[in-house]
Structures are given as structure tokens and as C-alpha cells.
Amino acid sequence: MLDFDSSVTTSDDYYSTFTPPRIKKEKKQKKENKIIFPVSSSLDPITIGAKRPNADDVKIIGGRGYDLRQPIPVKYKSVRQHFLNARKNFWIPNEIPMGEDKIQWNTDKLTEAEMWLFKTNISYLTAGDNLVPDNLVNVLLQHTTANEMRQYLRWQISEEANHVESYLFILESFGLDEQGQGQIFNLYQDMPDLVEKINWNIEFANNAATTEAPKGSIESTQALLEDLISFYIFEYMFFPLGFSQIFALARQGKLRNTAQQYSYIWRDESLHAANGLWMIQQICRENPKVWDAAMKQRAREVVNEAVKLEISHAHAVMPDGGILGYSIQTYIKYAEFLADKICENLGVKVLFGTREHPMPWISEYELNHEVNFFEGRVREYQTGSQLNWD
Ligand SMILES: [Fe+2]
Ligand SMILES: [Fe+2]
Question: Which ligand is in closest contact with the Cα of 161?
């Protein structure tokens, strides 16, 4: 990798090399007025004389006085790597064959409980995958002042759009018309537990976006952190729990094509979660005062709230206690297991003390990060013969 730092010149060098005389004159006037150019968004007007970024000046949030529209220097090399890894993971829902699922859907292979689980699953996940990019646009990109992170977040937005396309493609491939698809997509809106769960994330986003505390203040940064934590939970807990519902069907040989779609989505979400955690940690490294005892306690409470939401979710989508090989109890244990992992990753005390993964079989659906979509093959899934009602 290039050593970007050594390639950085001062703004004076830059202008003496490239700037026409008229701009030089204006720059001189600005210098005399000692204007600082606050550049926090690509929507800020371009100002003549804005300083070329230097890695020492770049901050993950709250950076000021440099031109954010330039892709170098890359201060945060690991974020750049997130972008390059994500781009390698590019995939297209429409290229995953759906024929087997279409036959199963149209020949009533799913039980009533399985059908309800599937429908509520795709309804909730579609709402969720619409919500995440909105949070990126309305909250995170409003604060992020490192170009490499802005690039990654832009790429993530396109991936979330691809996930919504996947859900749409699944229902289309079953042969459902717009009315049939709409009935499924709309389901969550009539389910109080799912509405509450969606609104939970929206509240954090709105709070961070509308807080009257000045940007850069501890209060404003803590509102941003809470939002980041709530969406880290989305990517690391809510999505995988959702995917596990469909993987449980695939273990019985049902909706395996849909499970294949979800495996690709899960790979993307894993990287979103890793990047989200990195961002939380980096904000705290650069602004250590925000990660005080009260904030740590709050982070723990937020994770605990998420588990409670999952418990309600589980009962709403599995009113009979579960499906073959997949019980509400196992689901809740998995929520607690992931909650403890989140606490560990945030450096706060775990909530439940879980030790063993309650769904070890889920790793069969985890794609190798090195698998290239265009060279991949449809995976074979375990059939339901060894399953029991646990
Ligand atoms: Fe997504
Ligand atoms: Fe995501």
C-alpha cells in the first residue's frame, strides 16, 4: 500500500504548483482574513483556498479545515480495507436460481407456522434494510469527516439497496403479483412488536439527527454513539436472528434458494457490523471523554433493550413456540449470546454470561469471505432428517 502521508504536500506547495494566478490572489486575501473553512459535508459550498487534507488533521467525526472531497490521504487504512473487501463481495440476487423454492411455495410444502414465520421474516427484514441506509444518509454521513469512511458508507448504502432487491426478487420469483407481495411486505405494520422494534432504531436516529446540542459537544457525540450502537445491534443481532429463521427452514430442505440469498446478505451485514464497531471505537479513541461511566452503562442498557425486543419478536412470529429444529427458547438464547458478544466488543460487562453458541449449525450458512459470487456454486444444505423439536 502507498504511504499516503509522504505524498501529502502543504496547501502552499499545492497552490504554487497548480493554482492559476487569480485564485492565488483570492487565497492570499482569505489568508489575511484568517478564515477557517469548515468542511463537514459534500453539500458545503466549495471555498477557494480550502486546505488539502493532511492525515494529521483528519478526524473520523468533527474534522474541520480541510477539503473532504479528496480521496487522499487515507488516514484509516483498515476502513479502506473494509471498502475493498466489500467490493470483492459484490453479488446479484437475480443470478441465484429460485426454481426449487417456487415449486415448494406453490405446492404448499410449508406448514402454517412456517409460512407465518417466512412472511413476517421478509416483511421485517425489508423494513429494516430500508431503515439502515436512511440512518446512514441522515445521521452518519452528516458527521463523518474522513473520505475513506464516507466511501465505505456510500458503498454500504448500495448494498442495503441490493438486499431490498433480494427480498423483492424472492417474492417475485414465487410468482406473487404486486398485491400478493404487498400483503407480505406490509405485515409488520400490523404487528405491534415489530413496529416497536423498528421504531426503537428510528428513535435513536431521530434523536441523533435532531439534537440541539452543538456538533462536537459531548452530548451530541453521545447521541451519535447511541445511534451507532443501536444500528450495530441491528447489523450484528437483529439481522442474523432474522436470517436464522430462514436457515432453520433450509435445514429441513425448505426454501433453500431463499436461504442462499440470505447467506449473501449475511456476509454483507457482517462487514457492516465490523465497520460499525470500528467507528464506535474510533470515535471513542478520538473523543475519550464521551465514553464515560454513564455512557458505558447506557450502552449496556441499549443492548438489554434490544434483547427484550427480540423476545417479543420471537413470540409474535412463532406463536406456537417454534418450528421443527428451531424453538423460541433457542432463538432467545441466540439473542442473549449475540448480546454478550456485543457487550464484549464494546468493552462493557456482559449481560447474560452465555458460553456456548445455541445454534452452532448456523455456521453452515455463513459464506467464506473469500468466496467470489461469480465463481460460486449453489450450496448443498442439510436435510431435515436429523432435526428434532428442541
Ligand atoms: Fe442489509
Ligand atoms: Fe447492513
Answer: 1
